[in-house]
Automatic annotation (TrEMBL):
It holds the Pfam family HisKA_3. The chain crosses the membrane at residues 21-39, 59-80, 114-147, 167-192. This is histidine kinase. Residues 376-402, 432-455 are annotated as: Disordered. InterPro entries: HATPase_C_sf, Sensor_HK_TwoCompSys, Sig_transdc_His_kin_sub3_dim/P. It catalyses: ATP + protein L-histidine = ADP + protein N-phospho-L-histidine.
């Protein structure tokens, strides 16, 4: 039984699906070497003074040897590696994670890809030659006992004569086929073993892949923050607005109309923002994430405060310097991130706070550098019982972490926690020199928010 199992394994290794795909891969390599071989034939023929190089085995081998350096030179092109990797993944059974993606970026990876290209084409040419020469010969030898014409043909010389022993030729033909199959399987296994070595990712490839994953993760985090801030604030505001409307249903129709209008406006805006973010997720285009329209201080600060007040919460706002129109002078990214930080602060206060909210936004110039400072305070919530606390705390602190990430994007910081008996959220966003336009698009090292892990 063990012998039968070994024979089956050997048969699969030589004639199985993977071996057949490996043979196709080798034949492709032989075909790719043909242009180089034809070019080298011309050179060898000129040097040797022979018109037909193929008539001489020595000159044929010399042409083959001269074709390999030509193939190696073209293997240095960056696009050779992704072409080779695609073929190896499809035909050699090599796991994809062992191979590099994309063009070769460094000279080291280019030389390794050139080595693989030369090896593939060189070995593929040998197997292609064996297949083209030995297979027809093997079929003829197998048919010799059944054809008088073939028995009279000069199939060999010296030690071999089909006329002398015609019934031995089928065994020779089968032997030739076995030789081709075993050689092809061995060559395919060799290439499959060497593919991760020559086509595997280098340190530069791993770094580029890590940077690409980090960029993709940053975009996903950005979209997650947008969803959290927009939808979370809308749900908090709508819940309070609906509750306030229910309480005054019979007593204050005017307030009821204002609350319902605020609910309608809040949900309409949130559906639009949700549709934008979901569209970006479907498209999968990171470049569009920062280009997506988003509310800003200049465009919607007053509307944000009005919708919050419509739920019955008192919000006092102070701005320095002057009216809301001055916020149009802010850099777009700073105005957008500041709006989201204010929105998160309001949502946080509505979910967890008690009593009125005091918001103050100002632009000041300490040490010649302009900064946008946002300060929001409200009475803290009373500590609930443990069971209620687990039920009420549903945000997991993601909102404050998101606000800290937004501030860190601009090189700023967020502080959140108890301050003089009140809960305070304070964000500082640098805007650049007082005499030089700010360039907030370059992220700085994130700062750790003080006391920001609570709400």
């Amino acid at each position: 039984m063990s012998g039968t199992g070994a024979a089956r394994r050997l048969g699969r290794a030589v004639l199985g699906a993977r071996a057949r795909l490996g043979w196709v891969h080798l034949i492709l390599g032989g075909a790719l070497l043909m242009p180089y071989f034809l070019l080298s034939q011309v050179w060898v023929g000129v040097v040797a003074g022979r018109g037909n190089v193929l008539a001489s085995p020595t000159l044929t081998l010399a042409s083959y040897a001269a074709a390999l350096p030509l193939a190696a030179v073209t293997g240095l092109f960056g696009l050779v590696r992704p072409l080779s990797v695609t073929a190896v993944r499809a035909l050699c059974g090599v796991p994809g994670d062992l191979l590099a993606d994309g063009p070769a970026r460094s000279w080291g990876s280019r030389w390794r890809a050139a080595g693989w290209w030369t090896l593939h084409l060189g070995v593929g040419a040998v197997i292609s030659g064996m297949t083209l020469a030995a297979t027809p010969m093997a079929l003829v030898l197998i048919l010799v006992p059944f054809s008088a014409t073939l028995r009279r043909a000069p199939l060999g010389a010296g030690w071999f004569s089909s006329a002398a022993n015609p019934y031995a030729t089928p065994f020779l033909g089968v032997g030739l086929l076995v030789l081709v199959a075993v050689s092809s399987a061995a060559a395919g296994a060799l290439l499959a073993r060497l593919a991760p070595v020559l086509l595997g990712p280098t340190a530069a490839d791993r770094l580029a892949a890590a940077e690409e994953r980090a960029a993709d993760l940053a975009v996903r985090n950005r979209l997650a923050r947008e969803l959290h801030d927009a939808v979370g604030h809308a749900l908090s505001a709508v819940t309070l607005q609906a509750g306030a409307a229910r309480r005054v249903l019979d007593r204050d129709p005017e307030f009821l109309r204002e609350a319902l209008a605020a609910i309608e406006e809040t949900t309409r805006r949130t559906v639009g923002e949700l549709d934008t973010v979901l569209g970006l997720l479907r498209d999968g285009d990171p470049a569009r994430a920062d280009a997506a329209p988003a509310p800003t201080l200049a465009a919607d600060l007053d509307g944000l405060l009005a919708r919050t007040r419509a739920g019955g919460t008192t919000v006092t706002a102070g701005q320095d310097p002057g009216p809301a129109g001055d916020w149009e002078q802010l850099p777009a990214i700073a105005s957008r991130e500041a709006y989201r930080i204010v929105q998160e602060g309001l949502s946080n206060a509505l979910r967890h706070g008690l009593g009125p909210i005091a918001l103050h936004i100002r632009v000041h110039t300490p040490d010649g550098h302009r900064e946008l400072e946002i300060t929001m305070t409200n009475p803290p919530a009373q500590a609930p019982p443990a069971s209620d606390g687990e039920r009420r705390r549903t945000s997991g602190g993601r909102g404050l972490r998101g606000a800290a990430e937004r501030a860190a994007l601009l090189g700023g910081r967020v502080e959140a926690g108890l301050h003089e008996g009140r809960w305070r959220l304070r964000a500082v966003l640098p805007l650049g020199s007082a005499n030089t336009p700010a360039n907030p698009a370059t992220p700085s090292t994130p700062s750790t928010p003080a006391g920001g892990a609570g709400r």
